[in-house]
Amino acid sequence: MSEDNEKDFIAAPSPADTVTDLPPHLARSEGNAGQAAEQALPQHVRDMPEKPPHEKPRRARVEDAVDPDEETAGEKLSRKRDYLDGFLKKKPESAGEAGAGGELQQAVVDALKEIFDPEIPVNIYDLGLIYGVEVSEDKDVVVTMTLTTPHCPVAESMPAEVEIRAGSVPGVRDAEVNLVWDPPWGPDKMTDEARLELGML
After folding, report:
1. Rounded-to-integer distance, Cα 57 and Cα 167, Å
2. Spatial distance between the Cα atoms of 46 and 38, rounded to a whole number of angstroms
3. What is the three-class DSSP state of 144?
4. Residues 124 and 191 in one domain
5. Contact, 139 vs 132, CB < 8 A?
6. pLDDT (tens digit, 9 = 90+) per residue, 54-81?
7. Is the backbone of residue 28 left (phi > 0), alpha (psi -120 to 50) or beta?
8. Which terminus of the chain is more solvent-facing, meaning fewer CB atoms within 10 Å of its CB: N or C?
9. In whole angstroms, what is the distance from residue 118 CA to residue 175 CA?
């Protein structure tokens, strides 16, 4: 090799060696990539303290939810009894003097149970002739009913009697009867009490 071609060569360091102030052509070598990247950072970034390793949050355990002052068996039984007693005494939200399930509606139903079909010894409510009893907030009652057949001998008198009986219930301001034929009446609309009275059970 001639003297003109002679050049100074620097041996590449081992990846395990600690090297500082590497030349640019060696700073990118695989073994020193991390050190080169660190040297490329600004001085104030390099001076920042290292963050501790991130720790995963502790998983919640069932025993963590247990109250250390756990109530006794007697206290727990008493609490459950009080809760059940209050639940049974609570009326539905819709229940009141008026509305579905209200006291006034039940009073109208009880009054209609005093009207009997002239051909069948069962009251018209258990017979299934009453399709609905609605009570408005103004205490107006609307009774939707039918008859066993359109040719029933009481087709004219029965709706009028229902209207009078519903209107006579204390607290009712006005009563109205809607006579419908759809759906038609059938034995399947009778209550179990009516079936028992007629010997069908």
Report:
1. 70
2. 7
3. strand
4. yes
5. no
6. 666 677 666 555 554 566 766 766 766 6
7. alpha
8. N
9. 23
